[in-house]
Amino acid sequence: MLRGFLLIFLLTGVAIVAVFGLRGQKSTGAPIEVFPDMVRQPKVRAQAPLGFFADGRGARVPVPGTVPMGYEMPQASSEAAPGAAPVPAEMNAQPRLGFSAGTDYYNTGKMGTNWGTGLPMTLTAELMTRGRERFNITCAVCHGVTAAGDGIVKQYGLATVVSLQDERIRKMSDGEIFNTITHGKNTMLPYGPNITVTDRWAIIAYLRALQRSQNATEADVPPEHRAELDKPAETKAEPPPEAPKK
């Protein structure tokens, strides 16, 4: 009985010393941490000095050739990766090196203080092909190949994926869609660092084609082809079964 009391008294004393015994003392040394979990680590802090460099500054000038995230160096269409859709030449001519010229509609999706609409480049077959390729790589996993919001991730529980065929999205301006791709919205993460400015517009061009293909009316069919809508679909005759081999 006495032994148990002494043990409890000793443990209580150790706990009191551990909690209150060293309070109020100052030290220039690092605190003792059993599990620091990378709470304190060498890093560059904004507007703070850094002793690593001789001039004591933490902020450094970017190395030559640095390209802002979401931009790319101009390249000829012939330099595209093998098997990839070529980037139209006029898209390469757009200013995309740095943010000094990045306040126009092409870079922000805004015309003045409002979201703009329309493509800042000519709509071509190359642009559509590029947009389809980028959409299928980056967007279809969530929104589906027809933009109906039925991508593979929704089948695994991400129920917040919206259908881009929704009337609200179809009526949304191109500039606002560009901004959503760049900065994200709700559960959609920003893709500005992953998709270049030119490819964002290519995706929007292809998305508009997808939306029209899934919501087309008879008025969208050229007059000379409307009569073909009433024709029954042609069915291919099945080949006769092969005679059994003897």
List the helices and strands and how they pair.
Layout: H1 2-20, H2 89-92, H3 105-108, E1 110-111, E2 114-115, H4 125-143, H5 152-155, H6 167-170, H7 174-183, H8 197-214
Antiparallel strand pairs: 1-2
Description:
- With 246 residues, this protein is mainly alpha-helical.
- The chain has a domain at 121-217: Cytochrome c-like domain (Cytochrome Bc1 Complex, Chain D, domain 2, Orthogonal Bundle), CATH 1.10.760.
- Helices cover 33% and strands 2% of the residues.
- The protein has helices at 2-20, 89-92, 105-108, 125-143, 152-155, 167-170, 174-183, 197-214, and strands at residues 110-111, 114-115.
- The chain has a two-stranded antiparallel ribbon.
- The chain is elongated and about 100 Å long.
- The model is unreliable at 76-85 and 90-101 (pLDDT under 50).
Beta-strand percentage? under 5%
From the spread of the alpha carbons, the general shape counts as: elongated
Q: Under the CATH scheme, which architecture of the domain at 121-217 would be assigned?
A: Orthogonal Bundle
> Which structural class matches the secondary elements?
mainly alpha
Can you tell me the residue ranges where pLDDT is under 50 for at least 5 consecutive residues?
76-85, 90-101
Number of helices: 8
Q: What's the total count of β strands?
A: 2
Biggest beta-sheet profile: 2 strands, antiparallel
Distance between the termini: 100 Å
